[in-house]
Amino acid sequence: MRLNETQLEGYRRDGFLRLPGLFSAAEVAVLRAEIERVADIPCEEIRREAEDGPPKAIMHMHAPESGTASPVLQSMVRLPRTLDVAKQLLGDDELYVHHTKMNLKAAVDGSVWPWHQDYGYWRFDGIQAPDMTTVMVMIDPSTELNGCLYLLPGSQADGRHEPVFDRSTSYGIWTVPREEMRDRLRRHGPPVAITGAPGDAVVFDCNLMHASAHNLSAENRWQAYLCYNTCANQARTVDEPRPEWVRGTDFRPLTTVDDRSLLVGGGEAA
Ligand SMILES: O=C(O)CCC(=O)C(=O)O
Hints:
This protein is an alpha+beta fold. It has helices spanning 5-14, 25-38, 71-76, 80-90, 118-122, 178-188, and strands spanning 16-19, 46-48, 55-59, 95-105, 113-116, 132-138, 149-151, 164-166, 173-175, 192-194, 201-205, 210-212, 221-230. The two termini are 18 Å apart.
């Protein structure tokens, strides 16, 4: 899949690009079944809202050695629709996956993601340049009530800020200092609500400010995130690195698979 000049321009200006209907209903059903299959596996790659709470994020499904390993996710990160789009946006043919996550914002329980910028803390993983992008795919309908993603258009142009660690959530997250965030909201606002239907996608720059609210609805809001980095920009050695499931170190360039792979069960060689 090739993006046209208007789409590329939009991504450069806004820091994100919507890709409606990127995945079919049949493919979303396959992804949902995979998430349901791994969600009960006891392993460290599954992060919870609280110790006994529902899963918040299922990490690393694309990696064959993971406790959450899924042939379908191995394919999803290698499709022309995901990998080739990321290659085009990053202007590089050699990409690897920094991490993948299925963010399962559970009905009523699923909690807030405060304003942050992914490269704010990915820099701490030893990644030297913001040459990274994320493809997000909706598995459920995403609404303002169920905690859709909000993006702040143009905020990527300000570059990286130095994040602060926010312990106000059950899980802890590197966020934007409050006063700085107010300033950015005034300058770049208003934020855009990324609502949509299952299969809709958005691709966004790693310096783009984003956040999402609590799920106040009766329905789950599941979304898949595929985070790509260029191999040339691979994470350097750091003291006390985060685990492999969040700071991928398989720096081999990804090769594309057939665009229909998800429907035949996936797998790297599909
Ligand atoms: O899934 C969400 O609502 C937000 C996730 C997010 O911001 C992140 O994983 O960095």
